[in-house]
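[audit] Reproducing an earlier prediction to check determinism. Same input, same settings, fresh worker. If the tokens differ from the archived copy the diff job will pick it up downstream; this log only records the rerun itself.
[audit] input (162 residues):
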Amino acid sequence: MYKKFIAIFAAIAALFPATVIAQETIVAGNQALELWNEEGIANSPTWVQYWLVVMMLSFALGLLFVWKRLEARWVVGGLISGLLTTSFVTPALGLVNLSGLVALIHIIFWSPGLFLMLKNRPFLREKSLYKYWSGWITLVIIFSFIFDVRDSLIYLHHMLMA
């Protein structure tokens, strides 16, 4: 099993030959091909920095519901999986955390939770605090995807054309 896991990630890494970009050619920021780190966040417009706080608080509130709600487990699990991938897997593969890669990771890991929210629509049928959180987090993910889809496409185009 472990060997298959390594082989899969090696194959993925082979798809991105341009990942050995010289660090000095990358600027930190929030555009698709800019380095996304603490400096990148600090260089982002103020509204993006506020949005990141709102987004993280919204996902964190999902912890209140993970024990009893399937959708909340997928939403919070998607966030945690994405954070772990960004923190450990991408560096292990030699990938640079560009904003577009982070956006792609969001789409990959947040989509199952969004799908369940839209399929089950707890924001329409529940009569509890979960109703409001599920509606809010659905909007948060959709709003984030407006930017993430664009940035991930720019990133993939750049990596595949390099």
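[audit] rerun output stored. Observation attached for the diff report: The chain is about 70% helix and 0% strand.
[audit] end
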